[in-house]
Amino acid sequence: MDTHIVKILKAFYITHDVKCFVVEKPAGYDFIPGQATDVSINHPEWQDKLRPFTFTNLREQNYLEFMIKIYKDHEGVTNKLGSINAGAELILHDVFGAIQYKGSGTFIAGGAGITPFISIFRDLYKKQHIQGNKLIYSNKTTEDVIMAEELQKMLKKDFLKIYTRENVMEYIEKRIDRNFLIENIADFSQNFYVCGPSDFVKSITKNLLDLGASANTVIFEK
Length: 222
What we know:
- The chain is an alpha/beta fold.
- The chain is globular and about 50 Å long.
- Strands 4-3-6-1-2-5 form a six-stranded antiparallel beta sheet. It has a six-stranded parallel beta sheet with strand order 10-9-8-7-11-12.
- The protein has helices at 77-81, 115-126, 148-155, 178-184, 198-210, and strands at residues 4-13, 18-24, 36-41, 51-54, 63-69, 89-96, 105-110, 134-139, 159-163, 172-173, 191-195, 218-220.
- It starts with a strand and ends with a strand.
């Protein structure tokens, strides 16, 4: 397994608990939009603690970018990442990931599960191929939405925001359950891209398959 030590160039919060890291890009290091790598912190105590994070930048850019949800309630890698900034070093491992664009369809994301889709949407938007794709994005509250303005600009009316713990005018407070899918999706033969917490992915994938989607058009991280 190849590893690369990279310096953090910029680190800043983009929501109350999601931090964006811009890091050096090793020569020859490449990924397909939607893919991820295991990351660890280059410090003796943390080097062997790997966590998977998705690239959110365009692949042709000369840096790499990650948007990472910081969990402050336990002493883990993301809690530590919350306190490290530009100048510190991360260790990147091999690129992996089953989520990649296979044609237009509906993207269903929960919370930080939006991250693999950000790189895909940025790539499609730049190539002017984003039309025909729809995003259903579930969060607890409006404050939890990652990159809301950019997603809105790219997807326009095809961006549907769902909130599970907030009742705000013009927003829907509900969960993405079977009935929601029936009400909001006309065609179950299209491509579906699903990412989020494992229970979220499991239940949505099961509902999509029950409603007629086929196993090879439902794309998620196995």
